[in-house]
Amino acid sequence: MTFSDYQQLLFERRDHGVLLITINNPEKYNAADEELHGELARVWNEVSRDPETRVAVVTGAGRAFSAGGDLAMVERMAGDHGRVSHMLGEMSDLVYNIINCEKPIISAINGVAVGAGVVVALLADIAICAEDAKLGDGHVKLGVSAGDHAAIIWPLLAGMAKARYYLLTGEMVTGAEAERLGMVAKALPRDQVLDESLRVADVLATGAQQAIRLTKRSLNSWLRSAGPTFDQSAAYEMLCFMGPDVLEGAAALREKRAPKFS
Predict the structure, then answer these.
(1) Which end of the chain is more exposed for a tag (fewer CB within 10 A), N or C?
(2) DSSP assignment, residue 17?
């Protein structure tokens, strides 16, 4: 596969079947608009089928991993049943395609990761994070429920008490704290994150491929068993997009002020 039809993802083939994927919209801190969100949802199926790829490493261009959903996209979705219905299917594809990808995925979290970015960052099989990166699920601050990945993975990684705290408050967590909580495998100085991720990728790419892939499949059974919880949370998030709070949340973010929800 050439991966030639992607506009906001860059692909670099490295030794031993390692595929480096870079989220490439640095001017907007790699925020996900409709195009990038769709590309992030479908790329993992193609990675899984690609005979030349053994391991995928995903990172962000510039200083951010991905700053979440593009605000203009959020505003276009609000109250639009067609867009909301499409997003419900696409966000499910994003989550399940990462979980079911045959090849191991490593996230090199080089900076802020929220929204779709933190979906990819935390659902990756191995997450290596900059100590000063900020990770978070700020859905409640936008006026919608945490839906696009949080219910399926945060309780498993951080425990229910911490998951409740961060998802109900919308507060961010640093890479160093994420490592302490068990949300990422390693937290390192920012300039070491990609090199270490590629080193680990080489270890996996030169290992016993069937053994590694079947180990991934077995471990991700924990996530598949939580599928109904994710499906419910995704539907709740999309329901909130049909209400008034998301408009106030988006306006507050654009105007850099505290929201005044009804």
Answers:
(1) C
(2) G
- Look up the pTM and report it: 0.96
> DSSP assignment of 101-137, as one string?
-SS-EEEEE-S-EETHHHHHHHHSSEEEEETT-EEE-
Share of the chain above pLDDT 70, in %: 100
Q: Are residues 124 and 58 in contact, defined by beta-carbon separation less than 8 angstroms?
A: yes
| The token pair that represents 246 in the structure block | 């998301």
Distance between CA atoms of residues 197 and 173, nearest Å:
21
Give the Cα separation of 97 and 58 in Å (integer).
14
Please give the sequence-ordered ranges of beta strands (E in DSSP) within the chain, or none if there are none: 9-14, 18-23, 55-60, 66-67, 105-109, 113-114, 126-130, 134-136, 173-174, 186-188
Nearby residues of 147 by Cβ (< 8 Å), 6 or more positions away: 91, 139, 233, 234, 235, 236, 237, 238
Are the C-beta atoms of 162 and 131 separated by less than 8 Å? no
Alpha-carbon distance 175 to 199, whole Å?
A: 19
Q: Is the pLDDT of residue 234 over 90?
A: yes
At 147, is the pLDDT very low, low, confident or very high (cuts 50, 70, 90)?
confident
- Mapped onto helix, strand or coil, the DSSP state of residue 146 is coil
Residue 65 has pLDDT above 90, yes or no: yes
Three-state SS at 68: coil
Confidence of residue 179 (pLDDT cuts 50, 70, 90): very high
Residue with tokens 């790699």, as numbered in its chain: 30
Which tokens sit at 135?
């990770």
